[in-house]
Amino acid sequence: MLVIRTDFSDQRAWEAVRAALGSSDYMEPPHSKEDRSYEGLSVEDVLARLPVGTRDPFIAVVDKTTIDSPEMPVMLVDLNEWRGQYGRTFRVVPRELPSIEVNLSLANMDFFEFADSADDDGVFRGFRD
């Protein structure tokens, strides 16, 4: 999974986010892109800069909202074009990210199933009964 940093305002918070994202035994550690030229970019601008041939089903963006919130809700961006929702976003708390990555990589679930299950504030905190 590719994690793109767009907020550089708090190094300590960024390190906490990276640690939270890399703490799972169920997924490979994420690959972080820490390029200041991405600072403050919109999702559309980040998508326009993705390397040709990116094959991940989604990317994660660490922006100001992620850095400023104690929950560290990372923005996920759908890269799958076949459903016509390329660029759709929702946020996820780090503890739920392994489940999303595993289910999407196995094609067990689709991005929209997680996005549609986000809470009213747009953050996915897990499936509720």
Automatic annotation (TrEMBL):
InterPro entries with a match to the protein in the record: DUF6924
Source domain of life: Bacteria
Occurrences of domain DUF6924 (ranges): 2-127
Protein name: DUF6924 domain-containing protein
Organism, as annotated: Actinomadura algeriensis
